[in-house]
Structure formats: structure tokens, C-alpha cells
Specification:
0% strand; 77% helix; Tetracycline Repressor, domain 2; 186 residues; Arc Repressor Mutant, subunit A; 2 domains
């Protein structure tokens, strides 16, 4: 499969998995949406699980790069961390928001180690990004604590925004994080 066809398959599979979940989307739907032959699909992705893993890895790299660019456009620790929360708030309001693809993978594939690792690598990457930002101003242990707290707030906010959108309070996660950061600054 040429790189462009591989990209097309990954892009279409990502869209289908985001909108409908992994288990609800058959390989035939991905093949049809991508306009490739079954043989071409299986020559490059040995199974649906291999396709799911590739989607998660590519999505992780893309999102972490986007978040990295977002935070680098800011100057201070506080504005960099806030930009991550703001990015998530913008995502919740978008038409493409259907919950966290990585969390969905962990739920739908509880026993598939490669898929779990791919999903968890994004979460670990986001945590590391935030820890590195906090390390500019805080000790390693405090940066670790603040990054973990931020991850918990973001994951909770994402879950509520998806499962109970009426209960989602915009910027509540950030307001709580800002309070926690302020407490570390006094």
C-alpha cells in the first residue's frame, strides 16, 4: 500500500472509530470508506487489532505534536498548562468530539496488550508534557504531582463532557487546577 493509501486508511479508520467505536466498525466499513481492496488492507494491517493499534499510535503522535505546538506558543508555565485545558475545552465543543478514543480503546480491548500500550502511551505522553512544563518552576516531585492532578482533571472533564454533556461546566477543570497551582505558589 502506498503511503497515501495507508494514510487514507488510517484517516478513515480513525474517523469511523471516533464516531462509532472500535467494536461497532467492521473491517469492511474501513475498506469501503477508504476505497482499497481487502487484500491491500490485510497486506499492511494483518488484523483489525493491528489497524486499531496503528490508528492509536498515529493519533497519539499527532495529538501530542499539536499540544506541543500549542504550549510552545505560550511563555509561562501557567499559560502553557492553561493552553492544554483550553485545547480540551475547544475539543469538547467541536463536532468531532465523541469522547476519548484512547479511553474507548482501553474499554473495548481490555485484554489486548498492544492496543492497551498504544492507548496508554498517549496518556503517558500527555502526562510527560505537563510534567516537563511544571518542572520549569517546581521540584521534580511537585511537578509530578501537579501533572498527575492535571491529567486526572482533564480525564474527568473529558468523561463528563462526553457522557453527561449537560453536567459539563466549561473551564471547571482549569479553575480547579489553577487553585491547586496557586496553593503551591504560596
Amino acid at each position: 500500500m502506498t503511503r497515501s493509501k495507508r494514510s487514507t486508511v488510517l484517516e478513515n479508520a480513525t474517523t469511523l472509530f471516533i464516531e462509532h467505536g472500535f467494536n461497532a466498525v467492521g473491517i469492511e466499513a474501513v475498506i469501503s470508506a477508504s476505497g482499497v481492496a481487502r487484500m491491500t488492507m490485510y497486506r499492511n494491517f494483518s488484523s483489525k487489532d493491528a489497524l486499531v493499534e496503528a490508528v492509536l499510535r498515529e493519533r497519539s503522535v499527532g495529538l501530542l505534536a499539536e499540544l506541543g505546538r500549542t504550549v510552545m506558543a505560550k511563555r509561562t508555565t501557567m499559560t502553557r498548562i492553561r493552553s492544554i485545558f483550553d485545547w480540551h475545552e475547544d475539543w469538547y465543543k467541536s463536532d468531532s468530539f465523541h469522547g476519548c478514543l484512547f479511553e474507548r480503546a482501553l474499554t473495548e480491548f481490555p485484554l489486548q496488550a498492544d492496543i492497551r500500550e498504544a492507548a496508554l502511551s498517549y496518556k503517558a505522553g500527555l502526562h510527560e508534557l505537563m510534567k516537563n512544563i511544571f518542572t520549569a518552576e517546581y521540584s521534580t516531585s511537585t511537578a509530578q504531582h501537579l501533572a498527575t492532578t492535571a491529567a486526572v482533571l482533564i480525564e474527568g472533564s473529558t468523561s463528563i463532557a462526553h457522557a453527561r454533556p449537560r453536567d459539563h461546566v466549561p473551564n471547571l477543570a482549569w479553575q480547579n487546577m489553577a487553585t491547586i497551582i496557586d496553593a503551591h505558589n504560596t
